[in-house]
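agent> fetching stored inputs for the NAI docking request
agent> found them:
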Amino acid sequence: MTSRIAILGSGEVGSTIAYSLILNPVAGEILLVDPKEEVRDAQVQDLSDATFHGDTSTLVRAGTHKEAGQCDIVVITAGAAQKKGESRTDLVGRNLKILGSAIEDMKPFREDTIIVLVTNPVDILTYFAQKFSGLPKSQVIGSGTFLDSARLRGILSAKCGVAASSIDAYVLGEHGDSQMVAWSHASVGGIPLEEALPDASIDKASIAEDTKKKAAAIAENKGATAYGIGGVTSSICKSILFDECNIRPLSHYQDDMKVCISMPVVIGRKGIVKQIPLKLSESEQKELEQSAKSMREIIEDAEKEQNKE
Ligand SMILES: NC(=O)C1=CN([C@@H]2O[C@H](COP(=O)(O)OP(=O)(O)OC[C@H]3O[C@@H](n4cnc5c(N)ncnc54)[C@H](O)[C@@H]3O)[C@@H](O)[C@H]2O)C=CC1
Ligand SMILES: CC(=O)C(=O)O
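agent> prediction call returned; pasting C-alpha coordinates
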Protein backbone atom coordinates (compact mmCIF):
# COMPACT_ATOMS: atom_id res chain seq x y z
CA MET A 1 0.00 0.00 0.00
CA THR A 2 1.22 3.54 -0.75
CA SER A 3 2.58 5.28 2.32
CA ARG A 4 0.95 8.64 2.95
CA ILE A 5 1.97 11.72 4.89
CA ALA A 6 -0.60 14.44 5.61
CA ILE A 7 0.65 17.94 6.33
CA LEU A 8 -1.77 20.20 8.20
CA GLY A 9 -1.07 23.80 7.23
CA SER A 10 0.21 24.64 3.77
CA GLY A 11 1.92 27.90 4.75
CA GLU A 12 5.67 28.55 4.80
CA VAL A 13 6.60 25.61 7.01
CA GLY A 14 4.11 23.02 5.71
CA SER A 15 5.03 23.63 2.07
CA THR A 16 8.78 23.56 2.84
CA ILE A 17 8.41 20.21 4.63
CA ALA A 18 6.50 18.91 1.59
CA TYR A 19 9.26 20.14 -0.72
CA SER A 20 11.91 18.42 1.37
CA LEU A 21 9.85 15.19 1.28
CA ILE A 22 9.77 15.45 -2.53
CA LEU A 23 13.52 16.02 -2.86
CA ASN A 24 14.32 13.06 -0.59
CA PRO A 25 11.36 10.83 -1.44
CA VAL A 26 9.96 9.12 1.61
CA ALA A 27 6.24 8.60 0.96
CA GLY A 28 4.13 7.75 -2.09
CA GLU A 29 1.61 10.50 -1.37
CA ILE A 30 1.67 13.86 0.38
CA LEU A 31 -1.68 15.37 1.31
CA LEU A 32 -1.89 19.09 2.05
CA VAL A 33 -4.72 20.06 4.40
CA ASP A 34 -5.60 23.72 4.98
CA PRO A 35 -8.89 25.62 5.34
CA LYS A 36 -7.43 28.32 3.04
CA GLU A 37 -8.33 26.28 -0.03
CA GLU A 38 -6.94 28.66 -2.65
CA VAL A 39 -3.51 28.79 -1.00
CA ARG A 40 -3.56 25.02 -0.44
CA ASP A 41 -4.43 24.31 -4.08
CA ALA A 42 -1.78 26.71 -5.37
CA GLN A 43 0.81 25.00 -3.16
CA VAL A 44 -0.32 21.58 -4.45
CA GLN A 45 0.18 22.76 -8.03
CA ASP A 46 3.55 24.38 -7.39
CA LEU A 47 4.87 21.38 -5.41
CA SER A 48 3.53 18.97 -8.04
CA ASP A 49 5.55 20.85 -10.67
CA ALA A 50 8.65 19.86 -8.68
CA THR A 51 7.74 16.17 -9.19
CA PHE A 52 7.26 16.11 -12.97
CA HIS A 53 10.91 16.30 -14.10
CA GLY A 54 11.25 12.53 -14.13
CA ASP A 55 13.34 11.71 -11.04
CA THR A 56 10.60 11.48 -8.42
CA SER A 57 7.13 10.00 -8.36
CA THR A 58 5.68 11.47 -5.16
CA LEU A 59 2.04 12.45 -5.65
CA VAL A 60 1.03 15.72 -4.00
CA ARG A 61 -2.67 16.43 -3.58
CA ALA A 62 -5.17 18.34 -1.46
CA GLY A 63 -6.70 16.34 1.37
CA THR A 64 -9.28 16.65 4.13
CA HIS A 65 -8.76 16.42 7.87
CA LYS A 66 -10.63 13.09 7.86
CA GLU A 67 -8.22 11.66 5.26
CA ALA A 68 -5.28 12.95 7.32
CA GLY A 69 -6.44 10.85 10.28
CA GLN A 70 -6.02 7.75 8.08
CA CYS A 71 -2.44 8.53 6.96
CA ASP A 72 0.78 6.90 8.21
CA ILE A 73 2.03 10.25 9.50
CA VAL A 74 0.27 13.54 10.22
CA VAL A 75 2.63 16.50 10.42
CA ILE A 76 0.99 19.47 12.16
CA THR A 77 2.18 22.93 11.10
CA ALA A 78 -1.27 24.54 11.34
CA GLY A 79 -1.35 27.78 13.25
CA ALA A 80 0.22 31.16 13.69
CA ALA A 81 3.95 31.88 13.62
CA GLN A 82 5.68 34.35 15.97
CA LYS A 83 5.60 38.03 15.20
CA LYS A 84 8.73 40.10 15.87
CA GLY A 85 9.43 40.25 19.61
CA GLU A 86 7.12 37.36 20.48
CA SER A 87 8.40 34.19 22.13
CA ARG A 88 7.17 30.77 21.02
CA THR A 89 5.12 30.42 24.21
CA ASP A 90 3.21 33.63 23.39
CA LEU A 91 1.44 31.56 20.70
CA VAL A 92 -0.22 29.14 23.14
CA GLY A 93 -3.73 30.64 23.19
CA ARG A 94 -4.04 30.98 19.41
CA ASN A 95 -2.48 27.69 18.42
CA LEU A 96 -4.06 25.50 21.08
CA LYS A 97 -7.55 26.35 19.76
CA ILE A 98 -6.49 25.50 16.19
CA LEU A 99 -4.91 22.24 17.39
CA GLY A 100 -8.05 21.21 19.30
CA SER A 101 -10.36 21.71 16.31
CA ALA A 102 -7.91 20.14 13.83
CA ILE A 103 -7.61 16.99 15.96
CA GLU A 104 -11.40 16.70 16.37
CA ASP A 105 -11.75 17.06 12.57
CA MET A 106 -9.25 14.22 11.98
CA LYS A 107 -10.85 11.67 14.32
CA PRO A 108 -11.07 8.69 14.26
CA PHE A 109 -7.32 8.09 13.80
CA ARG A 110 -5.94 4.98 12.19
CA GLU A 111 -4.52 3.06 15.14
CA ASP A 112 -0.91 3.16 13.89
CA THR A 113 -0.91 6.83 12.80
CA ILE A 114 2.03 8.87 14.09
CA ILE A 115 1.45 12.57 14.78
CA VAL A 116 4.48 14.86 14.45
CA LEU A 117 3.96 18.30 15.97
CA VAL A 118 5.83 21.27 14.52
CA THR A 119 3.55 24.21 15.38
CA ASN A 120 4.84 26.32 18.27
CA PRO A 121 5.05 26.21 21.16
CA VAL A 122 5.83 22.68 20.07
CA ASP A 123 6.37 21.08 23.51
CA ILE A 124 3.09 22.42 24.90
CA LEU A 125 1.16 21.43 21.77
CA THR A 126 2.69 17.93 21.83
CA TYR A 127 1.35 17.50 25.38
CA PHE A 128 -2.14 18.62 24.34
CA ALA A 129 -2.10 16.63 21.08
CA GLN A 130 -1.49 13.49 23.16
CA LYS A 131 -4.43 14.40 25.36
CA PHE A 132 -6.83 15.42 22.55
CA SER A 133 -6.01 12.59 20.13
CA GLY A 134 -6.25 9.67 22.56
CA LEU A 135 -3.43 7.94 20.63
CA PRO A 136 -0.69 6.20 22.66
CA LYS A 137 1.82 8.82 23.87
CA SER A 138 4.61 7.06 21.95
CA GLN A 139 2.78 7.94 18.70
CA VAL A 140 2.56 11.69 19.34
CA ILE A 141 5.94 13.38 19.01
CA GLY A 142 7.21 16.94 18.73
CA SER A 143 10.12 18.01 16.51
CA GLY A 144 11.43 19.57 19.73
CA THR A 145 15.13 20.36 19.96
CA PHE A 146 16.17 18.26 16.97
CA LEU A 147 16.38 21.55 15.03
CA ASP A 148 18.30 23.30 17.85
CA SER A 149 20.70 20.35 18.06
CA ALA A 150 21.31 20.58 14.30
CA ARG A 151 21.99 24.32 14.72
CA LEU A 152 24.41 23.59 17.57
CA ARG A 153 26.29 21.06 15.44
CA GLY A 154 26.48 23.64 12.64
CA ILE A 155 27.93 26.30 14.95
CA LEU A 156 30.43 23.85 16.50
CA SER A 157 31.40 22.60 13.06
CA ALA A 158 32.26 26.12 11.89
CA LYS A 159 34.26 26.82 15.09
CA CYS A 160 36.19 23.52 15.19
CA GLY A 161 36.67 22.72 11.49
CA VAL A 162 35.02 19.29 11.87
CA ALA A 163 32.06 18.17 9.74
CA ALA A 164 28.70 18.59 11.50
CA SER A 165 28.01 14.90 10.80
CA SER A 166 31.01 13.95 13.01
CA ILE A 167 29.73 15.98 15.96
CA ASP A 168 27.24 14.64 18.51
CA ALA A 169 25.83 17.33 20.74
CA TYR A 170 22.33 17.64 22.14
CA VAL A 171 20.19 20.61 22.96
CA LEU A 172 17.54 19.30 25.37
CA GLY A 173 14.45 20.53 27.20
CA GLU A 174 12.16 23.12 25.64
CA HIS A 175 12.37 24.12 21.99
CA GLY A 176 12.51 27.68 23.22
CA ASP A 177 13.98 30.03 25.77
CA SER A 178 14.61 27.50 28.58
CA GLN A 179 16.51 24.98 26.43
CA MET A 180 19.93 23.73 27.60
CA VAL A 181 22.98 22.09 26.04
CA ALA A 182 24.11 18.69 27.39
CA TRP A 183 27.81 19.63 27.16
CA SER A 184 28.79 16.66 29.36
CA HIS A 185 27.81 14.35 26.47
CA ALA A 186 29.14 16.40 23.52
CA SER A 187 31.58 14.39 21.41
CA VAL A 188 33.54 14.52 18.17
CA GLY A 189 33.97 11.22 16.35
CA GLY A 190 32.84 9.47 19.53
CA ILE A 191 35.56 11.18 21.65
CA PRO A 192 34.56 13.70 24.37
CA LEU A 193 34.64 17.21 22.86
CA GLU A 194 37.41 18.68 25.01
CA GLU A 195 39.60 15.58 24.67
CA ALA A 196 39.20 15.52 20.88
CA LEU A 197 39.76 19.25 20.37
CA PRO A 198 41.97 20.45 23.25
CA ASP A 199 43.13 23.53 21.30
CA ALA A 200 39.70 24.71 20.14
CA SER A 201 38.54 27.71 22.15
CA ILE A 202 34.95 26.78 22.80
CA ASP A 203 32.99 29.42 24.67
CA LYS A 204 30.11 27.19 25.75
CA ALA A 205 27.88 29.94 27.11
CA SER A 206 28.13 32.02 23.94
CA ILE A 207 27.62 29.01 21.64
CA ALA A 208 24.53 27.94 23.62
CA GLU A 209 23.17 31.50 23.38
CA ASP A 210 23.83 31.73 19.61
CA THR A 211 22.05 28.39 19.16
CA LYS A 212 19.05 29.52 21.17
CA LYS A 213 18.83 32.85 19.34
CA LYS A 214 19.38 31.46 15.83
CA ALA A 215 15.67 31.36 14.89
CA ALA A 216 15.19 34.98 15.98
CA ALA A 217 18.37 36.05 14.12
CA ILE A 218 17.08 34.46 10.89
CA ALA A 219 13.54 35.80 11.34
CA GLU A 220 14.91 39.31 11.92
CA ASN A 221 15.92 39.53 8.27
CA LYS A 222 13.60 37.13 6.42
CA GLY A 223 10.51 37.15 8.64
CA ALA A 224 10.39 33.46 9.57
CA THR A 225 12.30 30.18 9.43
CA ALA A 226 11.35 27.28 7.17
CA TYR A 227 14.24 25.35 5.57
CA GLY A 228 15.79 24.12 8.83
CA ILE A 229 12.53 22.68 10.10
CA GLY A 230 11.76 21.39 6.59
CA GLY A 231 14.91 19.25 6.59
CA VAL A 232 14.51 18.13 10.18
CA THR A 233 10.86 17.13 9.81
CA SER A 234 11.41 15.17 6.60
CA SER A 235 14.24 13.35 8.39
CA ILE A 236 11.82 12.46 11.24
CA CYS A 237 9.28 11.17 8.68
CA LYS A 238 11.98 9.04 7.03
CA SER A 239 13.04 7.56 10.40
CA ILE A 240 9.41 6.60 11.04
CA LEU A 241 8.39 5.22 7.65
CA PHE A 242 11.65 3.34 7.07
CA ASP A 243 11.71 2.15 10.71
CA GLU A 244 15.29 3.42 10.96
CA CYS A 245 15.48 3.36 14.77
CA ASN A 246 17.91 6.27 14.90
CA ILE A 247 18.46 8.33 18.02
CA ARG A 248 17.06 11.86 17.92
CA PRO A 249 16.32 14.52 20.52
CA LEU A 250 12.52 14.77 20.18
CA SER A 251 9.76 16.14 22.36
CA HIS A 252 7.87 13.39 24.16
CA TYR A 253 6.10 12.74 27.44
CA GLN A 254 8.26 12.55 30.56
CA ASP A 255 6.49 10.47 33.22
CA ASP A 256 8.43 11.99 36.10
CA MET A 257 7.97 15.63 35.09
CA LYS A 258 4.49 15.35 33.48
CA VAL A 259 5.44 17.49 30.48
CA CYS A 260 6.67 16.97 26.93
CA ILE A 261 10.24 18.12 26.41
CA SER A 262 13.11 16.80 24.31
CA MET A 263 15.40 14.00 25.41
CA PRO A 264 17.12 11.48 23.11
CA VAL A 265 14.89 8.64 21.92
CA VAL A 266 14.96 5.82 19.40
CA ILE A 267 12.48 6.63 16.62
CA GLY A 268 10.91 4.09 14.26
CA ARG A 269 7.62 3.00 12.66
CA LYS A 270 5.89 2.76 16.04
CA GLY A 271 6.97 6.29 16.95
CA ILE A 272 9.08 6.43 20.10
CA VAL A 273 10.47 2.95 20.44
CA LYS A 274 12.73 3.57 23.43
CA GLN A 275 13.98 6.39 25.64
CA ILE A 276 17.76 6.66 25.95
CA PRO A 277 18.82 7.24 29.57
CA LEU A 278 21.21 10.16 29.86
CA LYS A 279 23.08 10.98 33.06
CA LEU A 280 23.53 14.74 33.04
CA SER A 281 25.89 16.69 35.29
CA GLU A 282 24.29 18.17 38.40
CA SER A 283 24.05 21.67 36.93
CA GLU A 284 22.69 20.37 33.60
CA GLN A 285 20.07 18.33 35.44
CA LYS A 286 18.97 21.49 37.29
CA GLU A 287 18.68 23.40 34.00
CA LEU A 288 16.61 20.58 32.50
CA GLU A 289 14.30 20.48 35.52
CA GLN A 290 13.89 24.26 35.31
CA SER A 291 12.94 23.93 31.65
CA ALA A 292 10.36 21.25 32.49
CA LYS A 293 9.01 23.41 35.33
CA SER A 294 8.43 26.34 32.98
CA MET A 295 6.57 24.01 30.57
CA ARG A 296 4.43 22.65 33.44
CA GLU A 297 3.41 26.17 34.48
CA ILE A 298 2.26 26.99 30.95
CA ILE A 299 0.32 23.71 30.73
CA GLU A 300 -1.42 24.41 34.05
CA ASP A 301 -2.40 27.94 32.93
CA ALA A 302 -3.70 26.60 29.61
CA GLU A 303 -5.71 23.89 31.39
CA LYS A 304 -7.25 26.54 33.70
CA GLU A 305 -8.25 28.58 30.61
CA GLN A 306 -9.82 25.50 29.04
CA ASN A 307 -11.82 24.74 32.18
CA LYS A 308 -13.26 28.29 32.10
CA GLU A 309 -14.55 27.80 28.52
N1 LIG B 1 9.05 23.52 15.71
C1 LIG B 1 9.87 24.28 15.00
O1 LIG B 1 11.09 24.10 15.07
C2 LIG B 1 9.32 25.33 14.09
C3 LIG B 1 7.99 25.65 14.20
N2 LIG B 1 7.45 26.63 13.40
C4 LIG B 1 6.04 26.90 13.62
O2 LIG B 1 5.26 26.39 12.54
C5 LIG B 1 3.99 27.06 12.56
C6 LIG B 1 3.59 27.42 11.14
O3 LIG B 1 4.43 28.45 10.64
P1 LIG B 1 4.24 29.03 9.14
O4 LIG B 1 4.06 27.93 8.20
O5 LIG B 1 5.33 30.01 8.95
O6 LIG B 1 2.85 29.80 9.30
P2 LIG B 1 1.87 30.18 8.09
O7 LIG B 1 0.96 31.24 8.63
O8 LIG B 1 2.64 30.45 6.86
O9 LIG B 1 1.01 28.84 7.85
C7 LIG B 1 0.14 28.30 8.79
C8 LIG B 1 -1.01 27.66 8.00
O10 LIG B 1 -1.85 26.92 8.90
C9 LIG B 1 -3.15 26.94 8.32
N3 LIG B 1 -4.18 26.48 9.27
C10 LIG B 1 -4.87 27.19 10.21
N4 LIG B 1 -5.77 26.40 10.83
C11 LIG B 1 -5.68 25.16 10.25
C12 LIG B 1 -6.35 23.92 10.46
N5 LIG B 1 -7.31 23.78 11.39
N6 LIG B 1 -6.01 22.87 9.68
C13 LIG B 1 -5.03 22.98 8.74
N7 LIG B 1 -4.35 24.14 8.51
C14 LIG B 1 -4.67 25.21 9.25
C15 LIG B 1 -3.31 28.39 7.92
O11 LIG B 1 -4.41 28.58 7.01
C16 LIG B 1 -1.93 28.67 7.29
O12 LIG B 1 -1.94 28.44 5.88
C17 LIG B 1 4.16 28.25 13.52
O13 LIG B 1 3.56 27.96 14.76
C18 LIG B 1 5.67 28.37 13.66
O14 LIG B 1 6.04 28.97 14.88
C19 LIG B 1 8.19 27.27 12.47
C20 LIG B 1 9.52 26.97 12.29
C21 LIG B 1 10.20 26.00 13.12
C1 LIG C 1 10.46 29.26 14.57
C2 LIG C 1 11.20 28.21 15.28
O1 LIG C 1 10.70 27.62 16.23
C3 LIG C 1 12.57 27.90 14.88
O2 LIG C 1 12.99 28.15 13.75
O3 LIG C 1 13.31 27.37 15.74
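agent> quick read of the result: The mean pLDDT is 95.
agent> awaiting further instructions
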